Amino acid sequence: MMGSVSPIIRKLSIPEFTTNTPVLVDIYIAAMNYDKAIRDTRIEVWRRNSQNPGFTAVAALMDDQVVGVAYGFNGSPDHWWQHQLRRGLRQQGGPTEEEIHIIHNYFEVAEVHVQPGFQGHGIGRKLMHELLKDKQNTFAILSTPEVDDEANHAFSLYRSLGFTDLLRQFRFDGDQRPFAVLITALPLHDS
């Protein structure tokens, strides 16, 4: 359980991120309650993501223990995720002219995770602010699994930071769970 000490949030260099990726992926697996069998594959994917243009990573530390991680990079038409995004927009009748503008200048918030037991104490908010600070992109976009009535810490955080719906009940290729794809204008503001 968290004491009264506030976490230290700091940016990670690409070498720091790639060296510490196993620990960071363990936080992701715990936070998302995923099967540990995906660990090696996710480590590989995260390390590969660190080579994307605009890559930024931040970590939350409590007593020298990493308890949270967030990272992202500039959206690109070459990325799998943007192909998925375009497919979702087509399925809902778009992309509209505004949506075309959006998908040409966004920062993809790829991952935001806080270790269970540390969730609900503002660490995710601090990670998001540090991650998106000084971004030159017009928008930030992320996806999160759908939950009934948006009743979890993730949705509460994203809504409080001004994220609105871009796509709902969207299914990414290879994942049968429905996701919400959320967007906000940058710079980030608390609401």
TrEMBL record:
<dbReference type="InterPro" id="IPR000182">
    <property type="entry name" value="GNAT_dom"/>
</dbReference>
<protein>
    <recommendedName>
        <fullName>N-acetyltransferase domain-containing protein</fullName>
    </recommendedName>
</protein>
<dbReference type="GO" id="GO:0016747">
    <property type="term" value="F:acyltransferase activity, transferring groups other than amino-acyl groups"/>
</dbReference>
<dbReference type="InterPro" id="IPR016181">
    <property type="entry name" value="Acyl_CoA_acyltransferase"/>
</dbReference>
<feature type="domain" description="N-acetyltransferase">
    <location>
        <begin position="12"/>
        <end position="189"/>
    </location>
</feature>
<dbReference type="Pfam" id="PF13508">
    <property type="entry name" value="Acetyltransf_7"/>
</dbReference>
